[in-house]
């Protein structure tokens, strides 16, 4: 067994619990729960994930997630340390007008009869402020992304350290190729690809988050 597989076994119960939470969200969570995940994935690029989630939860607690004006949303994001807070607030309001309420129905319609990667690619083009990474992250966090990869800088660095890729440079053109390499690596390591993401994140950050 590899060292990475040993790490996976060490945290497997925690990973399984987290993935089950994700799987339940889309089927059992509210439209607001799903929209919160969309907003979280809007805020994460070039930001600390914990700060992004704290900011989104504060927007929700203060009633600004569903109804807040641009200035109110931007101020909360700024106060919680989210970089590019004005851009992020603008994206949240624009996507709120497109997807919320009834976000579950809208996502279900986009995903109908599609492979996960195709759904991801469609969302990346449809949601303001997203690329392939953010769309992958969102689908994983609502339980619809078990066969796609979240290629953020932490995962890319770990893939390079494990010899899966030669460079951490990423573009829309190279995303799919690196994703296929990560999937082959998951098979080689005998770790489900969504669990591999969390295992590599743990290797990088020594924590499990979202």
Key words describing this protein structure:
210 residues, mainly alpha, Endonuclease Iii, domain 2, Endonuclease III, domain 1, 2 domains, 12 helices, 72% helix, 0% strand
Structure description:
- This protein has 12 helices and no strands.
- With 210 residues, the chain is mostly helical.
- The chain has 2 domains: 78 residues, Helix-hairpin-Helix base-excision DNA repair enzymes (C-terminal) (Endonuclease Iii, domain 2), CATH 1.10.1670; 113 residues, Endonuclease III, domain 1.
- Helix 2 packs across helix 3, helix 3 crosses helix 5 and helix 10 packs across helix 12.
- It starts with a helix and ends in a 5-residue tail after the last helix.
């Amino acid at each position: 067994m590899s060292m990475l597989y040993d790490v996976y076994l060490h945290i497997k119960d925690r990973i399984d619990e987290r993935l089950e939470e994700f799987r339940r969200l889309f089927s059992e969570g509210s439209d607001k729960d799903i929209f919160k995940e969309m907003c979280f994935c809007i805020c994460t690029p070039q930001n600390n994930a914990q700060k992004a989630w704290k900011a989104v939860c504060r927007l929700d607690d203060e009633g600004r997630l569903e109804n807040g004006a641009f200035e109110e949303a931007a101020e909360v994001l700024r106060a919680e340390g989210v970089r590019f807070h004005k851009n992020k607030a603008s994206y949240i309001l624009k996507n709120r007008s497109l997807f919320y309420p009834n976000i579950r129905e809208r996502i279900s319609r986009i995903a109908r009869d599609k492979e996960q990667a195709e759904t991801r690619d469609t969302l990346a083009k449809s949601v303001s402020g997203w690329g392939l990474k953010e769309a992958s992250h969102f689908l994983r966090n609502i339980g619809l992304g078990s066969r796609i990869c979240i290629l953020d800088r932490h995962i890319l660095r770990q893939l390079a350290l494990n010899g899966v890729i030669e460079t951490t440079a990423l573009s829309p053109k190279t995303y799919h190729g690196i994703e296929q390499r990560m999937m082959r690596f998951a098979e080689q390591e005998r770790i489900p690809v969504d669990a591999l993401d969390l295992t590599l994140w743990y290797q990088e950050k020594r924590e499990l988050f979202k």
